[in-house]
Write a structure and sequence with these properties.
The chain has about 120 residues and is α+β, with helices and mostly antiparallel strands. It has one domain. The chain has helices spanning about 55-65, 85-90, 100-115, and strands at about 20-25, 35-40, 70-75, 80. The chain has a two-stranded antiparallel ribbon. Strand 3 (about 70-75) and strand 4 form a beta hairpin. Helix 1 runs antiparallel to helix 2 and helix 1 runs parallel beside helix 3 (about 100-115). The model has no long low-confidence stretch (mean pLDDT about 90). It binds zinc ion (ZN). Zinc ion (ZN) binds near residues 17 and 53.
Length: about 120
């Protein structure tokens, strides 16, 4: 099920996987200031533009396409904004540990749409 076409992400074929992790480091010393930096993926992209490790991200974008990219609340503090660009912005930092939660919430919406 894919009719998804990248909007803000590079078109296919891609030279690299667009996923960007977040790395939190603590400043040395007592201040304990946390700094969050992007950690780009170094995996080789497959046909859909994501590396093997980040294939699950494509499923989110496929769901988004099927649903018309609605605003989705994943929990009280975390949401995916309306529109393809917002879904892509979430997709590039969508961590594997959120997979079951996201699949549950987005999958429910999808089922509701498909089954009425
Ligand atoms: Zn990757």
């Amino acid at each position: 099920m894919s009719g998804y076409v990248p909007v803000t992400l590079p078109p296919l074929p891609r030279v690299r996987c667009p996923w960007q992790g977040r790395r939190m480091t603590l400043e040395p010393g007592l201040s304990g200031t946390a700094r969050i930096t992007a950690k780009p993926c170094t995996g080789a992209p497959l046909a859909n533009g994501w590396c093997e490790q980040h294939q699950y991200v494509q499923q989110l974008l496929d769901y988004g396409h099927a649903l018309g990219y609605p605003l989705v609340w994943l929990n009280m503090h975390l949401w995916i904004g309306r529109g393809c660009a917002n879904w892509e912005a979430y997709a590039v930092r969508y961590p594997a540990r959120r997979q079951s939660q996201v699949n549950f919430v987005v999958g429910q919406l999808y089922k509701k749409q498909v089954c009425g």
